Structures are given as C-alpha cells and as structure tokens.
Fold this sequence. Notes:
The chain is an all-alpha fold. The protein has helices at residues 4-14, 20-36, 40-49, 58-64, 72-81, 97-105, 112-122, 127-133, 138-145, 149-162, 165-179, 186-196, 203-219, 223-239, 243-259, 263-279, 283-299, 303-320, 323-339, 343-356, 366-375, and strands at residues 86-87, 93-94. It folds into three domains: 1-110, Arc Repressor Mutant, subunit A, CATH 1.10.10; 111-241, Serine Threonine Protein Phosphatase 5, Tetratricopeptide repeat, CATH 1.25.40; 269-384, no CATH class.
Amino acid sequence: MLSVEDVLERLSLSLLRRGTEDRHGTLQAALEWSWELLTDAERAALAQLSVFSGGFTLQAAEAALSLDGASALDTVSALVDRSMLRIDGERRGGMLLTVQEFAASKLGGDTSAALRHGAHFARWGDDDALERLDGPDGPGVRHRMAPDLENLLAACRAALARGEQEVAARTLLAAWAVVQFQGPYLVIVELGRAAAALPGLTASLSARVAMALGTALRMQARSGEAIALFEAAVPAASSAGLRRFEGSLTASLGILYFQTGRSEEAVASYAAAMALARETRTPTLEGYAQLLFAQIALADGELPEASALLALAEPLLTAAQDPVILTELLATRAELLWRSGAPDGGQATLARAEALLPGEHAARPWQLDRVAALLDGEQELGEP
Length: 384
C-alpha cells in the first residue's frame, strides 16, 4: 500500500503539466482519501499537531494533544506508520507542508490546540526556567531549546493576536534566550514592541521584556532607544523584587552608557550592579561587573588596575562556562596584552576568543569587535 508521501510524490510528478487548480484539487482529493482511513483519534491528533512550527518533540505533542482518553504516544506512532507524520534523526516529529496545511483546515476554527501549544512553550519562559538559564546549566538548556525557536515565535505571535499578555511575554523571553546568542534580532524587536504594548503586564514581565527588547536594539546599534528602555526597566525590576535580574539589567545599562561615552554613568551603573551581585550572592554577575570595570580602566590607561580586576573576574567567569562571557573576558585580556606592549600575545588571545564563539552565526560580544578593531589599528586608544 502506498504511503501518503508516495501518493503525493506520484501525483506531483503526474500533475506538473496541469494547471494550478487541477493540481490543488487532485492533491486535496488524495489527502481526503487518506484522512478517511484514519481513526477518530488519529484525525484529531493530526489536526491538532498542525499548530506546531518546525517540528515537535513527543513531550510537546503530549502537551498539545487532547484525544478523549486515547494514548498520545500510540496515536502519534500510528500516524508515523501511516506516513502522515515523519520522525527525523533528532527524534523530532513533523509533517509535510501540504499535509500540515490540510490538517490545519480540519481544525475548523477550534483554537484549543493552539492555546495548549502556547501554554506549553510559555512555561519555558517562566521565572524558574529563566533562573536556570542564568545558572551553570544555561548553555546546555539553550542548546536544547534552539530546535523549537520557530514554535516559540509562533506561540508568541498567536498569543499577541489573542491579546494574551503573559503567554506572549513568556514565549518572547524563551525565544530571546535562544536568539540573543545567534540572531535574528529584528524579530525580537518586532515581537518585543508588541508584547511591551499589551495592557496588564506585571512589573516583573515588563522589566524582562524591556531587557530583551533593549538588548536586541543594542545589537542593532540603536543605543538611544535601548537606554530609554533600560532606564525605565531598572526601577520596574526593583519594585518587583527581582534583585538579581536588576543587577544584570543595571550592568547592561552601564555597557550602553560606556559605549555612548557616558563614562561617569557607566561607573555608577557598574558599582550598583556589583553591589546587587554581592547582595544576591551571584558570583557570575560579580565577576562580570569586575570585567566591566577592567574595560573602563583599560580605556583610561590604568593597566595595573585593569590587570588586578581581570584577575578577580577570571575565576568567577570561568566557573560559569558561558562561551559568550568567556569570549568577552579573553577579548579584554587581549586588549590588556596589546596595551602592555605584547601585540603578539594580544592577537593570540583574541584568536582564542574568536574560537570560543558557538558558530558562525553566533552573537558577537561588542567588546570582541572593538578589540579586534583596536589591534588592527582601526580604532584609537581610549575610544570606547
């Protein structure tokens, strides 16, 4: 017996010379014929699984399916056996676009599967999940989230269309956890603006959305807009009691001040971030604040002070095992070597920093490009 894929392939070949309407009508008839061979549970599952974008794991499928007592695992397996679904090498399920469009038409306006889909992916952006992303397991968690970026973005768009502020905000934050290290940033700007404009956001979510949106804007060299967002978000984080997050936000604001030549405000922000890191016992944030102070010391030509600060920051940041932070740490050390009269050592250290980036499309820390330009003679001493 031919599978659905076999039938569609043969029909596509035989209909190449026919008109668009003929092709569409015949493919539709083939899909209707296959649909009629399915059980009620299989039909329900196929229609509901059409809400996914870019595939799904079995766990996600179980969260989105409602099959009146039928086993999600058995039903998905049956659809795979019938070639209505396919499983890839990463054990992710999916369906042909033609099948997905057909299955989606069978939902008949029922949004319950989309609501379950959104609720499942919103949990990836809840407070506990976001705290784990800042811990030692953060890089591994982000890596596991990456294949579902399309689902996170689709869930966010659907929630925005429905006016569901919490689901929209939390799926945006989960998507940002992936996008911030690889791009594309424009989609976060688009969805972040829409999420920030939704009425009823809590102070906590408002601050977190502002952080994601502001950082995406900074990545696109739109520093003025980012500074305004961060300046409003810091008191919102404070009022929500998010002291650790407030520290990260304050450090990010300081970076923007430094990049735009507002050194005194940068120093004040770094000092506030350092105090919050110590208050909340967050060694990675404390190390990062020391790294930022080292960068200011370098810009001011205070090489011994920069060296001492780097020595304090290095063990704290190395323990975090975050490749982006380690890249920035090495780039700063490369600048120190270069300014200390060891250009070869600076170039070698900068090469080590480049090698740490997790792929050619990974986000590049601003310090890396700045130091590369400095070592290549494209930037003047003391220029932020």
